[in-house]
Amino acid sequence: MQRCTNYFVYAMPMGRLSIAADEAGICAIAFGDVAHDGPRRPSALTNKAATQLQEYFAGKRRFFDIPLSPHGTEFQLKVWKALETIPYGQTRTYAEIAEMVGSPKGFRAVGLANNKNPLPIVVPCHRVIGADGKLVGYAGGVKIKKYLLDLEGIDTSKMK
């Protein structure tokens, strides 16, 4: 768990999201009612993130423009930055992300970094699929991953 200054839990169409902030930006988003460092109180920044996520779920937002403050290793930060380049409504494979970050054989490491993404949805790790086109894992569960991809207009009917 990373150091955040405050967090709050918001109701979303797919369930509750805990959104945490530090001085620099949003530092964590978690599925469910999850405690973070700092007091449980909303701030202008967590409210702005919640509003943008509500707009995303309503189909009115494709990009997020909130300051982000993810904490991770140099490699994780590089992977998470690459995830941000995956356009709304598109997917990439772990191997493609590995290539993007200059580690062509590092698809397993990319998978591990993906799993540690502290900012799901905003840093769209749900858009990464297996080389065979399968949904594979997702920290929020494959059901939520499918929900998010369907929301973005991606045909998941053949993905398992």
From TrEMBL:
One of its GO terms (biological process) is DNA alkylation repair. Its EC number is 2.1.1.63. It catalyses: a 4-O-methyl-thymidine in DNA + L-cysteinyl-[protein] = a thymidine in DNA + S-methyl-L-cysteinyl-[protein]; a 6-O-methyl-2'-deoxyguanosine in DNA + L-cysteinyl-[protein] = S-methyl-L-cysteinyl-[protein] + a 2'-deoxyguanosine in DNA. InterPro entries: MethylDNA_cys_MeTrfase_AS, MethylDNA_cys_MeTrfase_DNA-bd, MethylDNA_cys_MeTrfase_DNAb, MethylG_MeTrfase_N, MGMT, MGMT_N_sf, WH-like_DNA-bd_sf. It comes from the Bacteria. It is found in: Cytoplasm. Its main location: cytoplasm. The keyword Ion transport does not apply. NCBIfam families: ogt. Involved in the cellular defense against the biological effects of O6-methylguanine (O6-MeG) and O4-methylthymine (O4-MeT) in DNA. Repairs the methylated nucleobase in DNA by stoichiometrically transferring the methyl group to a cysteine residue in the enzyme. This is a suicide reaction: the enzyme is irreversibly inactivated. Belongs to the MGMT family. This is Methylated-DNA--protein-cysteine methyltransferase.
